[in-house]
Amino acid sequence: MKILKKPYYGIYFGDKFYKKLKYFKKKISIKIILVDSLTKKYCLHYFLYKTYLLKKKKIIKISSGEKKKNIETCKIIWKKLIKMNADRNSLFLNLGGGVITDMGAFACSVFKRGINFINIPTTLLSMIDASIGGKTGINFFSLKNEIGLFNFPKKIIIDNNFLKTLSFNEMKSGLSEIIKYGLISDINLWNFLKKSIFFKKKIKYDNNIIYQSIKIKNNIIDKDPIEKGLRKILNFGHTIGHAIESYFIFNLKKLISHGHSIAIGMICESWISYKMKMIKKKEFKEIYNVLSRIYSKIEIYNKDIEKIIYFIKHDKKNENKKIKFSLIKKLGYCLYNIEVDYELIKKSIQNSKIINLI
Ligand SMILES: NC(=O)c1ccc[n+]([C@@H]2O[C@H](COP(=O)([O-])OP(=O)(O)OC[C@H]3O[C@@H](n4cnc5c(N)ncnc54)[C@H](O)[C@@H]3O)[C@@H](O)[C@H]2O)c1
Ligand SMILES: [Zn+2]
């Protein structure tokens, strides 16, 4: 049981904290819990039991999935908040994965110019990444997280009991962001994960690895809360990864997890690092070998490469129409604002052995 206090924005570890949190006891006009179809099924009852909120709450349920992270779903949430007479004294609780914490935080941050919210992440990915760091947002016009703002939750509760019902695929999705932390800033974490994956040792998602991951993210955010510079390294793998995720979800209408897309993005972007002589071939191969053991190949239509490049051109890190990447300089160290040539980006997708061009 650990608490990360400021500069860690009040992150509480372990299930014993629920009762102690003053927010659950405080006289708050309405406590509203946002869930999706699966967190309603698997997480809500346990959460209500732990927090003694069984009688004093209102529930907003939305369908699950990345495709629902949009303005239409926000409209549903806002209409329900109005019907419930929610006001600035209400408390909004986001109980779910990254889609719920991103969109719920956004929806309540702009409702009546902002009501307080708490994140209770229920996926590995949202525990170690999405619920932390104050980025809120929704997809718009087929672009990932195009509309949003920085706004930090009042509290974050990390309870890994929620992981008991999470699918293997979703656990793998979270692992991808933990691997990213190793590659951008912690060689020991990278070596630990590499050995576990090569020797097929089970990785235990206990509070230690979750705590370690959050600490890495927070150390970065603490130095650069609103992504003026250093925080961009957290986007390693995401320039190409987000483009692949958008292409799958909005063009192919196929499901792909966020972490899977980012793993593919990390392979392509490490290849770019190698071609730009930032890392050695041996290091690129090491990254490829680890990631390709866990994440399966994807298929992309050759004719669609331009569609992927379109998404890359809209990446939030770009400046003055120049495509800027966060690229690793060595294992455990990452640079940001690196301009990459359009042709090299294209080749990284065409030459990637993890992408089958059909
Ligand atoms: N704000 C940030 O800094 C940040 C960082 C990383 C990712 N993200 C965003 O997070 C999103 C991805 O998050 P995610 O992977 O958690 O996706 P998600 O919220 O869609 O959850 C994945 C699936 O797991 C289900 N689920 C959630 N908890 C469960 C549980 N305990 N048991 C069984 N099923 C459960 C959900 O219903 C969903 O079907 C993306 O939209 C991404 O852009 C944001
Ligand atoms: Zn991510």
Automatic annotation (TrEMBL):
Gene, per the UniProt record: aroB
UniProt KW keywords: Cobalt, Lyase, Metal-binding, NAD, Nucleotide-binding, Zinc
Enzyme class, spelled out: lyase
BP GO terms, sorted: aromatic amino acid family biosynthetic process; chorismate biosynthetic process
InterPro entries: Dehydroquinate_synthase, DHQ_synth_AroB, DHQ_synth_fam, DHQS/DOIS_N, DHQS_C
One term of GO molecular function: 3-dehydroquinate synthase activity
Pfam families: DHQ_synthase, DHQS_C
Function recorded in the entry: Catalyzes the conversion of 3-deoxy-D-arabino-heptulosonate 7-phosphate (DAHP) to dehydroquinate (DHQ).
Organism: Karelsulcia muelleri (strain CARI)
Full protein name: 3-dehydroquinate synthase
EC numbers on record: 4.2.3.4
Residues annotated as domain 3-dehydroquinate synthase N-terminal: 60-172
